[in-house]
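Protein modeling request. Please complete all fields; requests missing the sequence field cannot be processed.
Requester role: graduate student
Desired output: 3D structure, C-alpha cell encoding
Chains: 1
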Amino acid sequence: MNLDLPFYQIFNIKQSKKDDDVIYSIIRLLSFDNYYTIGQANALCQVILFRWLESSNSTLNFSEIQYKTIKEAVYYINQNLDQRIKVSDLASKFNFSEKHFRNLFIKATGMSPKQYILNSKLDRATYLLMHSAKSIAEIAEELCFSGSDHLITSFKKKFKLTPLEYKNTHKSTS
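Delivered output (174 residues):
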C-alpha cells in the first residue's frame, strides 16, 4: 500500500513499507469508537514520530542525549495533556536551558514545544468532542486551557471551525 501522505514530503523522508503498515494500523484503529483503540493509535503515531527522529538524527546532527531528550519530551507531553505543561518546566526536567531545549525541539519537530503542546491538546479535544458527552467548558478544564474561550479560539485557528461546528460536521459524516 502506498499512502502518498504529505508527511513524507513535509519531512523529506523516504516512505517505507514498515511505516505504511503502521499508518494503516493507525487508520484501522481510529475507525473503532473506543478510548482503548484511540490510545493504541496515539502510541503508533509516536512510533512513526520516533522512527522519523531516528532516521533524521544523522542529518540533524543530534547527539544521543539530545535525541533521547526530544523523544522523551514528546512522550511526556502526550502522556500529560491533562496537566499544565510549561516549556521552562520541560527544559528543567531534561536538564537544558529553556532556549536550548526550544531550539532542539524546533530542529527535531519543526515546531516549538509550546505549539506542539497546543496542537496535541487540540487533537485530544477533537477526540473528546466526538467520543464523550463533555461540554466544551469541561474539555477546556480537563486539558488545562485557561478557559473555554481559549479552547474555542485556538480550536478555530487550527481547524477553521468552532468545536461545536466541528462536532456537528463530523458527527453527521460518521
